Amino acid sequence: MRTRNIEKEQLVKQTAIEMVVNDGFEGFSVNKLAKACGISVATLYIYYKDKDDLITTIALEEGKRMTTISLRGFDPTQSFTDGLRIQWKNRAEFMLENPLSMCFFEQLRTSTYQTKVMEQILGDFKEAMHAFVNNAVERGELDSMPLEVFWAIAYAPLYSLLRFHNDGRSPGGKPFTMNDDIMWQTFDRVIKALKK
Amino acid sequence: MRTRNIEKEQLVKQTAIEMVVNDGFEGFSVNKLAKACGISVATLYIYYKDKDDLITTIALEEGKRMTTISLRGFDPTQSFTDGLRIQWKNRAEFMLENPLSMCFFEQLRTSTYQTKVMEQILGDFKEAMHAFVNNAVERGELDSMPLEVFWAIAYAPLYSLLRFHNDGRSPGGKPFTMNDDIMWQTFDRVIKALKK
DNA sequence: CCCATAAGTAAGCGATTATTCACTTATTTT
DNA sequence: AAAATAAGTGAATAATCGCTTACTTATGGG
Fold it and tell me: Which of A89, B28, B135, B157 has the greatest CB tally within 10 Å of its CB?
């Protein structure tokens, strides 16, 4: 039998992400995707069951890549400051090296695919984070607080900075590029807000 | 001459927002909107120049409503803690009372309408915020810091909580309803992170 | 009252949507 | 070399897209 062209498959995935990032899901179509890849639209239906399957499969693959990197070197039993610092480092690293992926996830999060995809992607993640916070509270490093409050203070500021960086402008409308100094300065303040 | 049906116009606006919130811009179409409102699609083209004009006009109206409420009782010269507290109160109040509007803005922010609409909406806002931060720094209440850092710490946690509330679930996947206690507990930590 | 005029509509335009089908091409196995 | 089979395609489907046109309806000023 004829062998499948792996490069074409990768091209489809990359191009699909670019299309969604540039024009949103409203501007995405399988016909346009096929044309942009220089293949027949019918070929897409060999790779994927339908449009929905195409999006969710690509999202899940990309999500797995992200969670793997984000949990690298992370251990729920390590000290609170160390654990959170690694989380910030990993997440920032992934987002800065894969700005397209970051934009793609933002599109997913605010789309109808949200419940279908994001919960699966963030599954392992949430579990590890829950254990991590509980350990820190038990050791007395952290006040007990609702998980939503922890999440809002510990991670929302990081993602806010990353979004400014990705949009290329600050809240004042001026150009903005994230750097280590700004990031760790923010991290220190977040620690101050969380620790006893 | 025949008089315009104001109720129909309001119905169009409300229904358009609901459609975008429920199905995203990908699921929004002028034909569906007209059908949902029980009017002819041609009538929409009396109210609005085209689809783009429909979205941007509605977005700008809704945005004006939000910024007006958010700046109510706010004065860039007042003390840092008081000013930020009023901001949190106003923004939370609007978002909790207008969950549909909040979702609509989230769709706008992550859509191709972003640059066209969000900058106009947030214009006055950013100006007031800039003056407010500068004053607080001059009075010595606040460390000087990049505006992005301020924004990330001062507001990102609030919006994070509001999103959890709106989605109806916490980061752990459990049901979540925002209340005053959780909100002001978070506020206190944010103040701790920002003040000298 | 009546008519000028804006409000409102039914029907349909060409373009694009997701998906399918009958078909050809390339490669592995025998 | 030939048979078997998956990979890949061009052209078409019905449905829906944004938008227009030719037309009818309702109402305020004369």
Answer: B157
| Together in a domain, B91 and B187 | yes
Condensed to tens digits (0 to 9), the pLDDT of residues A96-128 reads: 999 999 999 999 999 999 999 999 999 888 899
Q: Residues A71, A43: one domain?
A: no
- Determine phi and psi for A169, rounding to 5 degrees: -150, 150
In this complex, the answer to whether residue B6 has its CB under 7 A from any atom of chain C, a nucleic strand, is: no
Q: Please indicate, yes or no, whether residues B32 and B90 belong to a single structural domain of this protein.
A: no
Q: Write out A49-116 in H/E/C secondary structure.
A: CCHHHHHHHHHHHHHHHHHHHHCCCCCCCCCHHHHHHHHHHHHHHHHHHCHHHHHHHHHHHCCCCHHH
The shortest C-alpha distance from B99 to chain A (Å) reads 15
B181 and B114 co-located in one domain: yes
Co-location of A108 and A83 in the same domain: yes
A172 contacts in chain B (CB < 8 Å): 126, 130, 147
Q: Give average pLDDT by consecutive 10-residue segment, chain A, 196 residues.
A: 90 98 98 98 98 98 96 96 98 98 98 94 90 96 95 98 94 91 98 93
Nearest CA in chain A to B182: A149
Per-residue pLDDT tens over the stretch B56-106:
999 999 999 999 999 999 999 999 999 999 999 999 999 999 999 999 999
Nucleotide nearest to A44 in CA–C1' terms: D8
Q: Which nucleotides of D are covered by protein (CB under 7 A)?
A: 4-12, 16-22, 25-28
Q: Is A117 exposed, middle or buried (0-12, 13-18, 19+ CB in 10 A)?
A: buried
Per-residue confidence (pLDDT) for residue A67, from 0 to 100: 96
Asked if A92 and A185 sit in the same domain, the reply is yes
**CA gap B132, B194 in Å, rounded:** 14
CATH value at residue B43 = 1.10.10.60
Shortest CA–C1' contact from A53: which nucleotide?
C18
Range of the domain at B23: 1-47
